[in-house]
Specification:
The chain contains 16 helices and twelve strands. The chain has a five-stranded mixed beta sheet, sandwiched between helices. A three-stranded antiparallel beta sheet has the order 4-12-9. It is of the alpha+beta class. Bound molecules: protoporphyrin IX containing FE. Protoporphyrin IX containing FE binds next to α5, α11 and α16.
Amino acid sequence: WRNPRCNGKLPPGSMGFPLVGETLQFFTSNTTFDIPPFVKVRMKRYGPIFKTSLVGRPVIVSTDPDLNHFIFLQEGQLFQSWYPDTFTEIFGRQNVGSLHGFMYKYLKNMVLNLFGPESLKKMLPEVENTACRRLQSWSSQETIELKEATASMIFDLTAKKLISYDQDNSPENLRENFVAFIQGLISFPLNIPGTAYHKCLQGRKNAMKMLKDLLNERRSMPRKHQSDFFDFVLEELQKEGTILTEAIALDLMFVLLFASFETTSLALTLAVKFLSDNPSVLNTLTDEHEAILRNRENTNSGLTWKEYKSMRYTFQFINETVRLANIVPGIFRKTLREIQFKGYTIPAGWAVMVCPPAVHLNPAKYQNPLTFNPSRWEGTEINGASKNFMAFGGGMRFCVGTDFTKVQMAVFLHCLVTKYRWKPIKGGNVLRTPGLQFPDGFHIQLLEKTRME
Ligand code: HEM
C-alpha cells in the first residue's frame, strides 16, 4: 500500500497505515479559519500536490490552482464527480452528485428551473416575509440560537417550495430526521448502533419514508394547477418514455432539502458572527440597506428585484463570508484515465480532492487572508467561480443553489440590519471536523431598533 503501482512519478506524500491510511488524521477536528492543519502540514512538506489515502482509497490532494482549474474543466472527460461511499450511502446512489451524462443534465435542468432567476424573482416576497416574520418572533424571545433558528427558517421555506410541506400542519417532523445527519455526514463509516454514521443512515431512512409517503399522498390527490416540485415530478413521471424514476426524484428531493438548509444556515450564522466582530462592516452594510429604504416612495413596500440586484456591498460581504467559511472543505473527483500533470502521473481510478480552503487562504491572492474584509472584493467579478474562488465549486458542477443562497442571505440581512440590533450572548465558536460546525451554537439576543437608532 505504501508504494502504489504507477506508470510514472506519483506526487509525494504518505499513504499512512494499511486500510485506514491517513483517515484519522484527516478527520481530526480543528478550530481554525486557516487551511486545515492536515493539508497545511503536507503542503509544507510535499508541495501543492500530494498523495494520501482516505477511507480506504488512494487520493491526490490538490491545492494547486492550475490543477484545480484543469479538474473542473475536464469534468466528464478525464475526471468524474465522485464522493466517498459514505456520502453515496447517505445521499442515495442515484443522487444528482453521483449521476453523469444525460441523466445528470436532465436533473440539473430541472433544478435550475426551480432555483433559476425567474423562479427566484417570484419567490422574493415570500423570502422577505418569512425572514421578517421569523426575526419578529425571535425578538420576542430572551435569546435565540442562530444556527438552529436559521436552519429551521430555510428548511421551512425550501420544503414549502419543493413539496408544500408545512411543519405546523404535519404530524411528523421532517426536519428532525435531517438533524441527526450533520454529524454523521463526514464521519468514520462504522454502521453500528451508537455511532454518528449509524444515526445518519437512520435519519435518511426516516426522511426518505416521509418523502415517499408525501409523494404517494399527492399522487392519490392530484392538484389542478402545478404549484410545487412534487406536482412537476408527478407530471414528468407520467410522460411516456420519461427517464425520470420515482427513486431518482426522491433522492433529488432529499439532496435539495439537505443542501439548502444546512449550507445556508451555516453561512448566515457565520455572517452574523462576522458582523458582531466587525462593527465598521456592520455600519457599511446597514448604510447600504437603509439607503434602499430611503430611496423608496413607500418604506414598507417589499423588496424589488432591482433593489436586490443593487446590493453591491452585500454581495461583497457574502463572498467574503463564504470565502472564510469554507463550508465545503473538499470537492471530490475520480480520474477516468491516467493523467499527466506538472511532471506527476495520477493513475486511472484514483480519487482527487480539490481543497478550496487552500485557495481561499492563499496570501499571494488574498492579502492578509485571515482578515475579514468584504471590500477586498470591490471591483472584482463576484458571480461564478474562478481559479481563486471556489466556495460554490466550479466548472460543469458549479453549485445550482448559489443564487438561491444569495437571495436568502441578502434578504435576511436586509431585514436584520434595518430593523434589529443584537447582542451575542454565548457560543459562536467554530469547529471543523473537517466540515464547519458551531459546537455550542451561537446564542444572541435580538432587539428591535428604536426610531432614534
Ligand atoms: C452557502 C451555501 C452553499 C455552498 C457553500 C455550496 C457549495 C457547493 C459546492 C462547492 C458544490 C460543488 C460540489 C462538486 O463539485 O462536487 C455544490 C454543488 C451543489 N449544490 Fe451547493 N452550496 C450551497 C448552497 C446550495 C443550495 C441552497 C442548494 C439547493 C438548492 C445547493 C444544491 C447543490 C447541488 C444539487 C449540487 C450538485 C450539483 C452538481 O453535481 O452538479 N447548494 N454546492
